[in-house]
Design goal:
two-stranded antiparallel ribbon; Tyrosine_recombinase_XerCD; 351 residues; mainly alpha; 2 domains; Site-specific integrase; DNA integration; 14 helices; 49% helix; DNA recombination; DNA polymerase, domain 1; globular; 3-stranded antiparallel beta sheet; hpI Integrase, Chain A
Length: 351
């Protein structure tokens, strides 16, 4: 099993390998299984260090694991952007690690090896205040997504304008259709419908396994046509839309990691290190909320299974506080796309 090679500690715990193999056999996405394996492996290392069998571990041992996660030095140092201390994993990452451990203990309970789960979870308790929601083992922080200011966006565009046609069309589609990184990199040539300016986001490439069809603008369509002509000089074969042009992987599908490196370089060159592959999606959905789109329409466009995920963009847009301004935002979406696709225009922002 590849996961055992990546995290040798898994090989020392047969039940852990058995549990992960079940997820693989059930067809869970490789990235999901990988995330579970990482979280469980880190927990098992703590158990080994504490000299406790994970099957017999209790809440005190889970607490030691949480303390280790929250005190681990950050690889990026102090995060002055969010005013964090630079110590410990983010709240979202800690929650992800604990989900793996909790599910592992659920498995042990189902197998009759334990009677209780040491990893607490939020649950409904009748009679409790505020809707009866009991807090989980680690409080879940609900942070709004980060989006760039108009000045930061213009700085990113100034740098992106000098990128290759492939990178520019990828940025344009990422914003225009609010695509996640994997959805963008997994687009195929037959997912495009140029006649209606729509693209199909296949279920197997989405986070929630929900297929959707989304439109893209005329300006993005022009840039996309230019890229398709350029792509034909690399490969005429149907398949994944975005191809590598490097010597080592020429004409091979562009990987998620390569795209992340492209966006990271653009962000650093623009002096906006917070900008990531997910920022364009956050920005698009926020702009749609500013334009007055209804909650369910934004959720459908974004591919959210629950409108709770969409509410963050409503809050971030300030629409609830400033509805009277929403009518003046119709031009924003078109302006962003035009700036992404126009190779000659100079971004003008008030200084």
């Amino acid at each position: 099993m590849v996961l055992e090679e990546k995290w040798p500690v898994l090989g020392r715990h047969g039940r852990a390998v058995e549990w992960l193999r079940i997820w693989v056999d059930l067809g869970r996405a490789p990235r999901t299984v990988d995330a579970y394996a990482r979280g469980l492996a880190e927990y098992l290392e703590v158990c080994d260090r504490e000299g406790v069998d994970p099957v017999e571990a209790g809440r005190a041992h889970v607490a030691v694991f949480v303390r280790e996660l929250t005190s681990r030095p950050s690889r990026r140092g102090a995060n002055v952007v969010s005013l964090d201390s630079g110590v410990g994993l983010s709240n979202a990452t800690i929650q992800q690690r604990l989900v793996a451990v909790r599910l592992f203990y659920d498995f042990l309970i189902e197998e009759g090896l334990r009677e209780s789960n040491p990893v607490g979870r939020g649950k409904y308790t009748p009679g409790r205040r505020f809707g009866g929601q009991q807090r989980g083992l680690v409080p879940r922080l609900a942070k709004l997504p980060w989006i760039p200011s108009e000045r930061q966006w213009a700085d990113v565009l100034d740098v992106a304008r000098h990128e290759s046609v492939r990178n520019r069309v990828m940025l344009a589609l990422a914003y225009d259709a609010a695509l996640r990184r994997e959805e963008l990199c997994s687009l195929r040539t037959d997912d495009l419908d140029p006649a209606h300016r729509t693209l199909r986001v296949r279920a197997e490439t989405t986070k929630n396994r929900l297929e959707r069809v989304v439109p893209y603008s005329a300006a993005t369509g022009v840039l996309l046509s230019g890229y398709l002509a350029h792509r034909a000089t690399i490969s005429r074969a149907r398949g994944l839309l975005f191809l590598s042009e490097s010597r080592r992987n020429h004409a091979q599908p562009l990987s998620l990691w390569t795209w992340s490196k492209v966006v990271r370089k653009v962000a650093l060159d623009a002096g906006v290190p917070q900008f990531s592959t997910h920022t364009t999606r956050h920005l698009c959905l926020t702009d749609l909320a500013r334009m007055g789109w209804e909650l369910h329409a934004i959720a459908t466009f974004a591919g959210h299974r629950s409108t709770e995920s969409t509410l963050a963009y409503i809050h971030l847009s300030g629409r609830d506080l400033a509805d009277k301004l929403a009518g003046g935002m119709e031009h924003i979406h078109a302006w962003r796309v035009r700036m992404l696709t126009d190779t000659t225009a100079t971004a003008e922002v008030s200084r």
